[in-house]
Specification:
Elements: E1 5-9, H1 15-29, E2 34-37, H2 42-48, H3 56-63, E3 65-68, H4 84-91, E4 96-102, E5 114-120, E6 130-133, E7 138-141, H5 147-163, E8 168-173, H6 182-193, E9 200-205, H7 206-215, E10 222-225, H8 227-240, E11 250-252, E12 257-259, H9 278-291, H10 295-311, H11 326-337
Parallel strand pairs: 1-2, 1-3, 3-12, 5-10, 8-9, 8-10
Antiparallel strand pairs: 4-5, 4-11, 6-7, 11-12
Helix pairs in contact: 1-9, 1-11, 5-6, 7-8, 9-10, 10-11
The protein binds 3-isopropylmalic acid (IPM) and magnesium ion.
Residues 73, 83, 86, 231, 262 line the site of 3-isopropylmalic acid (IPM).
C-alpha cells in the first residue's frame, strides 16, 4: 500500500491541543501515516504577514489530505489576511463540505439524530466579492451560484445518500427571493435528483428548514444546500449532537480532502489542556471513511470515542466540564483502540 501523507495545520489557540490529539489517535490505528506540519493561521500571520506558508496549497494537493485545526478569523477586514481554511477549500476545489450530526451517548445530545448536511463549499457569498459604495455607507456583496458547482455537489449528496443507505435528500434554498441564484441551485439540484429515483427528494426554504431543525430534527436525512445556509444550519444541527465541540467536518474534492473540526478557536481556554478533541478526532474518522476508503477503521475510531464519552460523567462541548483533560480523553480513546 502506498505511503499515506497528511498535511497538518494546527492553526491557532486550541488547535495546538486538539489537532495533536487527533494525530495521536490516527497514529494508533495507522502508525505509518506521514505527517507534514504546515504553518498557517492568525498567529502565523502576526509573525510573518502571511496567512499560510506559500507552499501550503501545493503541499496539500500533493498529499491529497489535510487536517486543519481552529483558525482565528477576525470579523473585520485585515489587509492581506484570509482564513486559511476558506482559502484552501477554494484553492484545492474541495467542493462539498460534509457536516454530519449523530446522536452521542451524552446527556446534551438528542436521541435518534442521524443527519448529514452537504454544503456547497466554493461559491455563494464566500467568493470574497464585496465592496462598499456611498463613502462606506453601503455594503455590497456578490452571491455566485453556478450550474457546474451545483451539479457536482448535488451528485455527491445523492451518491452519499446511496452509499450511506439513506432514504431522502432535502434541498434547502431561498429561491422565492433569490430567484436567479438559489433558483438555479434548486433547478440543477432537482435535475440531478431525477437521476436518483430510489432516493426521495424534497425541499424547504431555508427559514422553514431552520424551524424544523429546531422542532423536529429527525425529519432530516441528507440536506443539500448552498454555502452560507449550510454554514448556519450545520451549527444549528450540531446542538442536537451535543454541541459544536463534538461536530466534525470533511471537505471533499476530486482527489483531496480537508478534515476540520467545525468549532472555532476558544482563546479563553487555549493552553489549559481542557479543550475537547472529539470534533478533531471524528474529523479524522471522516477522512478515513470517505477519502481513504477505510470505513472499518473509521468506525473503530467512532466506537472508541463513543465509549470514552459514555464513560465520562460530563456534558461535553468545546470545553470539557468533566474530570478529563484533553490528554486523558485522548488516552482513553487510544486505549479503546488497542
Ligand atoms: C465553518 C466556519 C467558517 C465558514 C468561518 C470560520 C469562515 O464557520 O467552517 O463553518 O463560515 O465556513
Ligand atoms: Mg461555520
Amino acid at each position: 500500500m502506498a505511503q499515506r501523507l497528511l498535511c497538518v495545520i494546527e492553526g491557532d489557540g486550541i488547535g495546538h491541543e486538539v489537532i495533536p490529539a487527533a494525530v495521536e489517535v490516527l497514529h494508533t490505528v495507522l502508525p505509518d501515516v506521514i505527517i507534514q506540519p504546515v504553518e498557517a493561521g492568525w498567529e502565523y500571520f502576526e509573525r510573518t504577514g502571511l496567512s499560510m506558508h506559500p507552499d501550503t496549497v501545493e503541499q496539500v494537493k500533493q498529499a491529497g489530505a489535510v487536517l486543519v485545526g481552529t483558525v482565528t478569523t477576525p470579523p473585520y477586514p485585515v489587509e492581506g489576511y484570509i482564513s486559511p481554511a476558506l482559502h484552501l477549500r477554494r484553492a484545492v476545489q474541495a467542493f462539498a463540505n460534509l457536516r454530519p450530526t449523530t446522536s452521542l451517548p451524552i446527556p446534551t445530545s438528542r436521541e435518534g439524530i442521524n443527519l448529514l448536511i452537504v454544503r456547497e463549499n466554493t461559491e455563494d457569498v464566500y467568493g470574497g466579492h464585496e465592496h462598499t459604495e456611498d463613502e462606506g455607507q453601503t455594503g455590497i456583496s456578490e452571491k455566485i451560484i453556478t450550474r457546474e458547482a451545483t451539479e457536482r455537489v448535488s451528485r455527491l449528496a445523492f451518491e452519499m445518500a446511496i452509499r450511506g443507505g439513506r432514504k431522502k435528500v432535502t434541498i434547502v434554498h431561498k429561491a422565492n427571493v433569490l430567484q436567479q441564484t438559489d433558483g438555479l441551485f434548486r433547478r440543477v439540484a432537482l435535475e440531478v435528483a431525477s437521476y436518483y429515483p430510489e432516493i426521495i427528494t424534497d425541499e424547504f426554504f431555508v427559514d422553514t428548514a431552520a424551524y424544523w431543525m429546531v422542532k423536529e430534527p429527525t425529519r432530516f436525512d441528507v440536506i443539500l444546500t448552498p454555502n452560507l445556509y449550510g454554514d448556519i444550519l450545520s451549527d444549528m444541527a450540531a446542538a442536537w449532537g451535543g454541541g459544536l465541540g463534538l461536530a466534525p467536518s470533511l471537505s471533499l474534492g476530486e482527489r483531496v480532502a480537508i478534515a476540520e473540526p467545525a468549532h472555532g478557536n476558544v482563546p479563553a481556554i487555549a493552553g489549559l489542556g481542557i479543550a475537547n478533541p472529539t470534533a478533531a478526532i471524528l474529523s479524522v474518522a471522516m477522512l478515513l471513511r470517505y477519502h481513504w476508503q477505510m470505513p472499518e477503521i473509521a468506525q473503530h475510531i467512532v466506537e472508541a470515542v463513543r465509549a470514552t464519552l459514555s464513560e465520562g460523567d460530563y456534558t461535553a462541548d468545546v470545553v470539557m466540564d468533566g474530570a478529563l483533560s484533553t490528554s486523558q480523553f485522548t488516552e482513553s480513546v487510544c486505549n479503546h483502540l488497542h
